[in-house]
Amino acid sequence: MKELTSGQVRQMFLDFFKSKGHDVEPSASLIPVDDPSLLWINSGVATLKKYFDGTVVPQNPRITNAQKSIRTNDIENVGKTARHLTFFEMLGNFSVGDYFKKEAIAWAWELLTSPDWFGLDQSKLYVTVYPKDQDSKKLWIQNGVSSDHIYEVEDNFWDIGGGPCGPDTEVFFDRGQEFNNIPVDDPENYPGGENERYLEIWNIVFSELNHLPDGSYVEQPHKNIDTGMGLERVVSVFQHAKTNYETDLFLPIIHAIEQDSPYRYGQDEKIDSSFKIIADHVRTLVFAISDGAEPSNVGRGYVLRRLLRRAVLNGQKLKVNRQFLADLAPIVAEIMKSYYPELSDNMAKIQQVIKREEAKFAVTLNDGLKLLNSLIESPEVKQSKTISGSDAFKLFDTYGFPVELTQEAAAESGLKVDLIGYQKDMENQKERARKARGVTISMGSQNADLLNYQEKSIYKGYEEQVVDNCELDLLIQDEQKVSVVTTGDALAIFDRTPFYAEMGGQVGDTGWIYDQSGELVATVSDTKHAPNGQNMHYLAVLKELKVGNKYRLEIDAKRNEQIKRNHTATHLVDEALRDVLGPSSHQAGSLVAPGYLRFDFTSDEKLSSDQITKVEDIVNEKIFANIAVTAQEMPYQEAIDQGAVALFSEKYGDVVRVVKVGDYSTQLCGGDHVNNTAEIGMFKITESSGIGSGVRRIVALTGDGLYDYLKDEAAQAKSVMQELSVLKLSDGLEKVVNLKNELKSVQQELNALKEAHATDEAKALFEKVEKSGSWTYTAAVLQNLDAKELREIADKWRNQRISDLLLIASNKNGKASFLVAFSKERATKEVNAKTTINLFAEIFGGRGGGNPLMAVAGGKETDKIQAAIDEAPNIISTL
Q1: 170 by DSSP, 3-state: which?
Q2: CB contact at 8 A, 620 and 614
Q3: How many domains does the chain have?
Q4: Which of 114, 205, 242, 802 is 20 to 30 Å from 311 at the Cα level?
Q5: Local structure of residue 802 (DSSP, 8 states)
Q6: Mean pLDDT lowest for which of 246-255, 548-557, 596-605?
Q7: What is the pLDDT, as a whole number, of residue 437?
Q8: 401 phi and psi, to 5 degrees?
Q9: Residue 382: CA atoms inside 13 Å, Cβ hemisphere, count?
Q10: 37 or 394: which carries more pLDDT confidence?
Q11: Which residue ranges does the record assign to the Alanyl-transfer RNA synthetases family profile domain (predicted)?
Q12: What does the pLDDT look like over 83-119, one tens digit per residue?
């Protein structure tokens, strides 16, 4: 058998399918674009869904790729099994309505067994098929697979619950019984069973059915091929590796970790697990950060934070005594440089993010250890001998402590952890995450009529807002092609149209359709692209529409003019942000609507008020300069050579449209724009926020929208002036300052009165010293004080050395506060304020914490704080 590097395996796969007429698609970003159903790109087909559901028809129906992917649904299994990974590469070949089972199976066998390609031993290859898919079984036999190497498995049916689906066939490599983890006679010892002998290396899905919402299955108009070969798995075959981790994709990382650890990989399974976890997680971190994700407390950022903390904790298990993860990043880049050179280009940022997060975790870890120790020492835990599931989950969720670490620490103190409660909190969190992503259909259904419709539709909206004699070429109603529609909703495509179809952030046009006599026959609520690129109109039909007839199409011109102003303004904003923030800032998304514009851009820092003002000033300066806006078509490379800005998320053809705002902005753009910047009127940013790690968003207004906004602001200012009884806004500002100063003076007087009241309360309190056992104590319920004010009384008590113990409580704004303070002389490690506070707090349903000399508890059962104070002699006598 050949011995191939990971780079050779990847390239050979892509070269093979390129030789079969496939276009090689570059690996897309791990961060999904316009797909809320996914947290990460998790497969090769994830970036091609628009082709498979018929939304878009690709230029070439044959596609192949090596797609970087992340799956995090079972992080806990990483390091414990031979195959679980969070980051992996999926090699795939895809047919969108082109070739099907015959070619897919023949090419798969050729790639796997031909000496010119992978050259694997045929006797070691097995396949599984869906029992009802006898065609696939026959095709494997025709290509040379022995019938006793084919297994029928009921699970061989790919279905995500809606949309394209169908039977699949899987290819397994027999690594021999010496690699197995079960006996030869075990019922699971077969290809597809739960064993380590037969390694699945390829899954080929025959996407021939459509799973409808009612649960039924119908044949797809266009049958597709979707395959997935895990690079890490197949490389382990060529490199005779027991697991994915003993390959050139992981071993250099593992060997680097060994340099900081007294342990060596391969000596002990438990130790090996920590090496694997770190190697896997650092690969995920490097690729994800390179693509723009960063650790945070939500979404994909939370996943990265969790992975980094898990890697750090496993480094501690290996006795790595320094921050080390950032030093592993260049090794990942070196391993992957043949196909992912951008990792090295982005290395400074990758290491900076990892170092920052690792240092932050060191602080968090220390805080978590303090919490864990306080839990172990708390009276409740000592009494119940159990750390609650909610506390264990808090340690995991907030401080990054795996539950295993909490269990180990608890066991050392003779305690256990409520794992059922912990798991319940974990499931609740997963459910919240699922709800946060929303319920979305992962892949839509095809419409054969739209997929097969190839006629051109010419967009005339750059020059005209009304176009006569537009021939109606296609009508769709209730998912069916029809020749006439008399009423109801419908989709329509004309040979020519002034209606812009939603694209590049610009929303679709709306408007009206008239017949040749001038009668209104339909309204257009939206315009989008059909699968083959035509402008498709969403209609509410009022009068008869008939295919072949001609109509006058008229867009809502006022709405379109507002959109144009906002679209040109986004180009100015993009350039102005680079002027203010530097060249590293670039567009990360936009929405151009009639009422406002939204612009997303990359930036690690929040925009300051000064920066917002500078961006506004620059954009308005360009607006007031009356700069001509021009558009011109030219070859893509010529446009790039002229400095045109292209969006990373967009794909461009050989000929592109270049929009220029004088010499200030040059961008590739197919959208609508004003003729002169003066038409924008004026520009103002109304919102600035963060929408994810390293991505910021501004919302802004121009033209009519800005006029309405300023009119509303003026009305509010007038109302404020009336309330302040002033005639000028400047006078109102002066009056507000005066009122603020008066309020400050009143607040100071109030604080002085409260201080005097607290002093009086304390004086009366300190005269009440009682005794319980060997303890002297002072106890009382005080009126309308918060925890801060109770602490101030406690400081006075301590300075005057009144008694051994102080117990004071109060109710303010419906919240009970209870303070326990010990004198320095009577506080011990076993008996102190921290260990005593919850003995009182549990009486009024509260919980507290603090230090050995002073602790405070809060609760909502304010009617029971007197009962807690009354219980003082009994509790103190037990100390």
Answers
A1: strand
A2: no
A3: 6
A4: 242
A5: -
A6: 596-605
A7: 44
A8: -75, 120
A9: 10
A10: 394
A11: 4-712
A12: 789 999 999 999 998 999 999 999 999 999 999 999 9
Q: 817 near 832, Cβ under 8 Å?
A: no
β-pair type (62-70, 23-25): parallel
Please choose, from the candidates 842, 877, 839, 875, the residue with its C-alpha nearest in 3D space to the C-alpha of residue 861: 842
CA dihedral 417, 418, 424, 425 (to 10 degrees): -50
Locate all alpha helices (DSSP H) within 500-653, ordered by sequence: 557-581, 609-624, 636-641
Is 571 labeled as ligand-binding?
yes
**Containing H/E element for 494?**
strand 488-494
81: left (phi over 0), alpha (psi -120 to 50) or beta: beta
Helix or strand holding residue 792 (H, E): helix 787-800
Q: Which one, of 223, 229, 274, lies nearest residue 253 by Cα? A: 274
CA distance 370 to 850: 12
Residue 751: CB atoms within 10 Å: 10
Which CA distances in Å does 766 have to 93, 763, 797, 806, 836?
A: 83, 5, 7, 9, 21
Q: Residue 854: which CATH number?
A: 3.10.310.40
Does residue 372 belong to any structural domain of this protein?
A: no
Other residues' Cβ atoms within 10 Å of the Cβ of residue 59: 9
How many Å apart are CA 505 and CA 507, to the nearest integer?
6
CA separation for the pair 43, 26 (Å, rounded):
14
Angle (CA) 397-402-407 rounded to 5° is 120
Rounded to the nearest 5 percent, the helix, strand and coil shares of the chain are 40, 25, 35
Distance of CA 11 to the CA centre of its chain: 30
Lowest mean pLDDT: which of 47-51, 558-562, 650-654? 650-654
- Of 342, 367, 392, the position where a domain reaches its end is 367
Please identify, among 522, 552, 582, the residue that sits at the C-terminal boundary of a domain: 552
Tokens matching residue 115: 């000496």
Query: What are the residues whose beta carbons fall under 8 Å from the beta carbon of 731, sequence distance 6 or more?
Result: 724
Strand, coil or helix: what is 753? helix
Joined tokens for residue 724? 């302040």
CA 766/CA 778 separation, integer angstroms: 7
Strand stretches in 593-694, DSSP E: 597-602, 629-635, 655-661, 665-668, 683-692
Query: What whole-number distance in Å separates Cα of residue 133 and Cα of residue 104?
Result: 15
Cα–Cα separations (whole angstroms), residue 213 to 205, 244, 247, 325, 491 = 21, 39, 44, 47, 21
**What is the distance between the terminal CA atoms of the chain, rounded to a whole angstrom?**
76
Are residue 672 and residue 781 in the same domain, yes or no?
A: no
Q: What angle do CA 619, 621, 622 make, to 5 degrees?
A: 65
Cα separation, 612 vs 598, in Å, equals 14
CB burial of residue 763 (10 Å; 0-12, 13-18, 19+): exposed
Residue 740 domain-assigned? no
Whether residues 130 and 181 share a domain: the answer is yes
**Residue 516 within a domain:** yes
Residue 737 DSSP SS3: helix
Q: What 3-state class would DSSP assign to 527?
A: strand
Neighbours of 19 (CB within 10 A): 12
Q: Is residue 735 part of a domain?
A: no
Domain that holds residue 327: 250-367
pLDDT digits (tens, 9 = 90+) for 739-778: 888 888 888 888 777 767 666 777 778 888 999 989 999 9
Q: Cα(314)–Cα(123) distance, rounded to whole angstroms?
A: 41
The verdict on whether residue 84 carries a ligand-binding annotation is no
CA distance 591 to 573: 13
> Is 165 one of the annotated binding-site residues?
no
